## 1
Amino acid sequence: MAMSQPRSATADVVVVGAGVVGAACAYYAARAGLRVAIVDRGSVAGGTTGAGEGNLLVSDKSPGPELDLTLYSLALWKELGSTLDADAFELERKGGLVVAATVSALETLRTLGTEHRALGIAVLELGPDDLHTHEPHLRTGLAGGASYPQDMQLQPILATAHLLRAAIRDHRASFYPGATVIAVELDEGGRVAAVRTPSGRIATPAVVNAAGTWAGDLAKLAGVDLPIMPRRGFILVTEPLASAGEAPPIRHKVYAAEYVDNVASEASDLQTSAVVEGTRAGTVLIGASRERVGFDRTFALPVLRRLAAQAVDLFPFLASVHVIRAYVGFRPYSPDHLPVIGPDPRVPGLLHACGHEGAGIGLAPATADLITSALVGAAPAVDPAPFSPERFAVASVAGEVDG
Amino acid sequence: MADQIVFDGRPLPVLPGQTVAGTLWEAGIRSWRTTRVARAQRGLFCGIGACFDCLATIDGVPGQRACLAPARPGMVVSSRHDPTNAEPPGTTASSGPISAARYDVAVVGAGPAGLAAAATAALGGCRVALIDSAAQPGGQFWRQRGSETGDSEVGGYRDWSVYAGLRSIVEERVDHIPNATVWFTEPGFVLHTTAGRLETVRVVLATGAYDRVLPFPGWDLPGVVTPGAAQALLKGSGVAVGREVVVAGAGPFLLPVAVGLAAGGARVNGVYEAGDPRGYLSRSGSLAGAASKVGEAMAYAAALARRRVPYRIRHAVIAAHGDASVSGVDIARLDNAGQVVAGSVQRVTCDAVAVGYGFTANLDLALMLGCATRVSADGGLAIMVGGEGQTSVPGVYAAGEITGVGGATLAVVEGELAGSAAAQAAGSSDPLSGRDLASLRRRRRRLRAFADAMHAAHALPAGWPAWLEDQTLVCRCEEVPYASVAAAVTDLGATDARAVKLVARPGMGWCQGRVCGYATAELTARLCERDVRRDDLVAFAHRPLAGPILLGDLSRPS
């Protein structure tokens, strides 16, 4: 793989961040004919991408701009699956299963399902008995659920690595790992002129800020405020359960109906809801927790205990299964919980591709597509207005950001 | 009727104090686990709980390490397990408090360093807990079978009188918590162990080390084990690892293992040392305090010569062969640069091979507590400590192999220093019971200098990556071949060991990088054409959970 130090280079666009969003932006921009340089202070997928579950979900999103972007993005992922070898990054159309413990939770789920169906999304309402034909090891006594066959899963680190590889191999992008951006240089007109790292300078008219949870730091280097903050999450990983090629004991991405509320919640205290799914490696991943505690990487035992209890409640057999590791990550969120995608009106040449919270894997291709359209001056495939950085350009003048 | 366990429906006789692995091995069973990708057979490998290759379902509880589990009469051991059909759910950990009161000092690990630390702190007047995963204190160095009192003559134990002295103090004055593993720590300090929760003001970490291994073709065959496994099997279960054994790798530990096996009835077909210890043995005879160490090595060498066991330096096992289990190894001569000499490879017959290249420190808890690390003289990761075992975290002390591998004598001295420092912090007026701190510190420095010279003489053979074939496994747990590790760097953009782990999955399985960590870090560095960095080693040593825990146990609030 072509890797070198940027002693003195030029590019049409520098993408900052080699996570899934940055890799997708690099791939789409390079495919459109731009000379792309990707820089990252670490290696590939070292931040939030490497700490995720790889969810491509429609089921957890209420109707609105993020769902529209998701539907477009999932279509792009399928396309990428055929261009880049879906098997190499474990793209699986496994489907999601949302389960409701109570009748009232089920009613909320049904209401959302009706709205989803109106948008053309496939939703199957399930009674308590249907649940067990979908997932035989779910506990009894659940009120019902909904099946979302369009939900998919992939291995986010491999997906990132393969996007990056294709950008470099097939479209002559350059990758500079271990290169921390220390300055974004502007010309006398206030436009982006170059990116500087300790090992060199890359002259460029455009910078894509795909620095994930650390996107606010990069924006600051360009002289603007961008309110991207971390929302901590832990994931438990079990021992491998199924042998390779065998049917896994948990077939879908299974989660509790409360998860939808938690995703959209404004609360800063701890929220947890059971999210349980198998992987190609035979393990079961157990999430999901949400906390606003800054960048504290300390493993909090009470949170891990709650995740375990919720998973065992859904799947009683898990009580006799070992957790062999756990990981922590920080979802990059913006005050209105929508991603920030597109040119920043305050600094010509600066584009943001960040703030995807827990949906960055799913939204990466659509984000990259919008960014590339902005870079080459093409018409966007989805209305980019709801994601525009302009909304914070106004907010930061008022000095009002979510802390 | 003799005591028995039942393995897959077959009754097997048990000797008192044996582990399940010891009982299986004695019955001629070399494998009892099937891997998930290649469906390969696995059994004992590290022998002391680090590698998780020997997992079995014991009395209905899956995922138990046969090398640690005591074989109790009537036990039912199974090589198979259906995770969705475990009824009722098992439990292996208690979440209740071990003691209502907070301890002044909790010592983790009851090997030479931990025993010395616990005894010293207790004599200094502290309330001390000593937590250890074994039934008997002593660690790997003074390991004994079950509840038997060790016999220094038969077992070949070194410094038995030191052990007896420390043990009697611990029995009188320390809360010894056996058969317990710490799986999580919280600042302040709360130690979550499989025997329950424990609160303490100070922690002394003496968590020891396990054999460091380098991959080679065939190293995943049943019958290929570490020297530590051979030693633990012999000392702990009274079983010789094979009838015809090859011992290989690097370091002075190979000698007592080979002598022990020969004394235990095995034929040792050769001891192959990759390093060249001649120079340092003659030089360090003059190093004050090292004379007894050199004498020890000479005595072992003489014992090997008496039994006509060939001892070859600058030789290495570069491949193992066999069908169901190992039947022979390829031995190569190494040149000055640690590369295989062309045309020097010879096949040696054996039914077991013990291979290890020094030790890897067990740093789970130290890293969980946030202790700063350094790369030590043997190229492995170690905890940074002050002159009396103080780590970078206030209230946390470290002693023994985790501060840099250096052997049992040094570990005892470090344990005494750390125990006394902890006692002093707890307000003891005479933490060393009248002994001289300065001379103890001098002794520590001398022994450390000797250990560093020893590491230089037993250095890893630089040419080891050339032994690997594309399909040679680097990570035994996740069955990651060398080709995948190489592709992570050359094809998929990984530039450090953490990224290799994320992309190719070495270190993601049951053992969490304990076995493949060193090798993957070094392979990554070489593929990136640079030296191994501390962060490469940390990527495989940092574990948020210090051991597997059942979800059912984790789900219970403490």
## 2
Amino acid sequence: MDAFTLLQPVSTWDNLLSFWRFEDMNVLWVLVGSILLGMSASVIGAFAFLRKRSLIGDALAHAALPGVMMAFLLFQTRDPLVMFLGAAASSFIGFFLIDWLPKNTKIKPDAALAITLSFFFALGLMLLSYIQGLNVENKSGLDKILFGQAAAMTQDDIRLLGYVAITILITVTLFFHKLRLIAFNRTYAITIGMAVNRYELLLALLIVMSVVVGLQLVGVVLMAAVLLTPIAAARFWSGELRSILILSAFLGALSAIISTQISYIAPAMPTGPWMVVSLSILFILSLLFAPQKGLLKRFLEHKLLRQKVAEENILRTLYKLVERNKIAQLDFNHSDIQALRSVPTESLQKTLKTLCRKKLIESSSKGFRLTQSGLELATQLTRRHRLWENYLNEHAELTPEQVHNQAERIEHILTESQEKQLQDELKNADSDPHGNPIPSQTSLTEGKN
Amino acid sequence: MLTELGMNDIWIIATASLVAAASALVGVFLILRKQALIGDAISHSVLLGIVLAFLLTDSRSLPVMLTGAVLIGLLTAWLSDTLHRVGKLQSDASIGIVFTLFFAIGVILVSLYAGQIDLDQECVLYGEIAFVPFDTIYIGGLESGTDIGPRAFWAIGIVFVIVLVSIILGFKRLETIAFHPNLALSLGINVVFWHYFLMTLVSMTTVASFDAVGAILVVALLVIPASSAYLLAKSLKAMLWIAVGYSQAAVIIGYSLAFSLDSSISASIAVSAGVLLFITIAVLQVQKTVMRRKKVAVIN
């Protein structure tokens, strides 16, 4: 690096360019390391999530802190492997404690998690403050593992991180089927004679490992999010575990790229929080816009259904009006409809307009009248409604008073084949429990002609 | 022993003991309502509340900080709940997503405005109880007024009184909600209101403890003494008393520990609370084994 460049103000853009040109070899290392971490943590976090232990990563990351400090105190070195083993050991004790407390005492699982987390963290901080009071070398960077600092990582750190992350990814791929079975149906896995305990231990080991190598990059406090948020986001996109895992690995990698860049452009910024923020943004986007389970999609579907129900209700009301007037009158105005079904005038007008546009009804000076296609649809709905009433009355032994509301809901979603099935099931498919005739596909149409 | 202690030590111990007592009282309800994790979450997100309140108003007065923290605390509780219902996520997962995001934003803001905010990343975690005595309140101007004691002491003092009064006034309702949430519902008690009321108390306790013990160690004080009490107590009143007792013991042991090891006071207090809990569990386990042996002996 040329020392003179420091004298000129460096724009963010230049910085970004130099990041992607990898002028600094270290940048490439950090980037690769964090991508690997993002991927492995998201994948292993997915299994913790499926076992309904989403916050286990939080507790384990906090539990690693005293191990790091103890390792440093005992060996007075910052060798990555020593730190790693210390952290993994104390994380594992934490894991055991979280499991042991609810099984052997009155303490509930959530409290056990909070107790372990806060106790180990306090112990770690106590040791850290003790170390800072001591006169030893190398102690300056220890507190970086609280929030993570990509820039503070050495090549040895990154190499270890890479090895561990790749080990995790390979192990998960190898044991994918077994881990999936345990995650979704633990009892069945036991029944078919799988060594569930051994695999759970393996899973715990993998979680501990990924949490521990993540500490320097993301930090103790926020490691939980790197395990948890990607899977929570990926879940909105698919229902199949393999694609969820691939997607969450991708999200983890993406957030790693974003946060390493920010940390490079502004070195004072801790990497961990930015990783969490970018992950959260990805989560929010998934929550809102995912094509299958996103909120927007669900909202639109809901709205469409409500509109359909409103339209169909009006059609059926018109049908009933025709029926009551013995087909003598075919045109009805607002108040006729509202007398039979209480709809606010405003929404009634809107629905009627839509129905006119769809040519299911036509309006004239005398009022609204069902068209041929409208009449067919209304007949079908009425038939389904009354068939269902009949069915409930006959087979579920509900009284005629009870059946109407249920039929009111089901008429909109019954399919043709279900309708046929109902018709075959019922003995007297001529009239509903209230005594109204169940129209066949053609009855009323014929009568009108 | 008192003769060896200077005025500063007394202020520190008094502040720590109020922090511990207030946290223990609130913690009892968190443990009983199985909401230890939301306590954890709120104590993290309060950081964002404090930073935002400071950036918006440029003041560090108690009412401003309390308002900021309470708003963010309630937002955390509400968002976690909403995410759980609307996003169909497990409730602990939604808690985890919300509080890590808030905490991350808080830390980023702290490092962005490091020069302007009297906060740094470490103090977020440890608190700086050792400096508590130097930040004092003067009544009637800086020069001529009288020194009435440290800011942090008065902050947590006021919150402690609020917590105590709320518990005394709402005791019957809190008791019903804690032990029989369904009965409470059928009696027409507004469970939602009391839930958010409890969250308000948690947020206030956390923010007032912030100066003294930091955001995360307050979790230890919320959860650990209350859990010890949960193992021993037979009634809510007993549990509250025992929790406070444990918390005060932790303060005294922790302070001497920190004194002899020259370690962080707040961390040492939290560690002592944990050690006391583990001793309690050990004693109970031994008692259980002895009882079992006796029973076996009687049968034989």
